[in-house]
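The instructor's notes for this session suggest beginning with a concrete chain rather than abstract definitions. Hand out the sequence below and ask the class to guess, before any prediction is shown, which regions might be ordered.
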Amino acid sequence: MPEHYKLQFWNFHLDYFWDVFLAAKLDDKVVGYVMCHAETIHHVRAGIIISLAVAPEHKREGIGKELMQNVQRIFRMKGIPLVALQVRKSNVDAIRFYEGLGYQTEMMLPGYYTEPTEDGWLMSRVL
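After discussion, reveal the predicted structure:
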């Protein structure tokens, strides 16, 4: 799968912050994953989607939706009432995908992304 983050990003999150890491496999090959953690934001416990990816050849097969539904179920079981994520403003397909799962745009995040620099959206949904 193509990856947009540097190795240091993964090492940092795997060492310190991940609570849930789910992988989707097909014929013993990983074809998707979602990496998350939980934190408290303004006195509310929230699940944070750090990264969701599906192999290009398996997009639109329901893998991302199933990964997200499973993560939401896990957060619900842990008593976490809110899930949030960030997405590039230009990633219209991802924005539509998340909206289809009930996520709403909360606020713009100016200059949130680098390489290339781009604004992001903070999206969330109540479970």
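Then share the key points. The helical segments are 7-16, 63-77, 92-100. The chain has one domain: 7-126.
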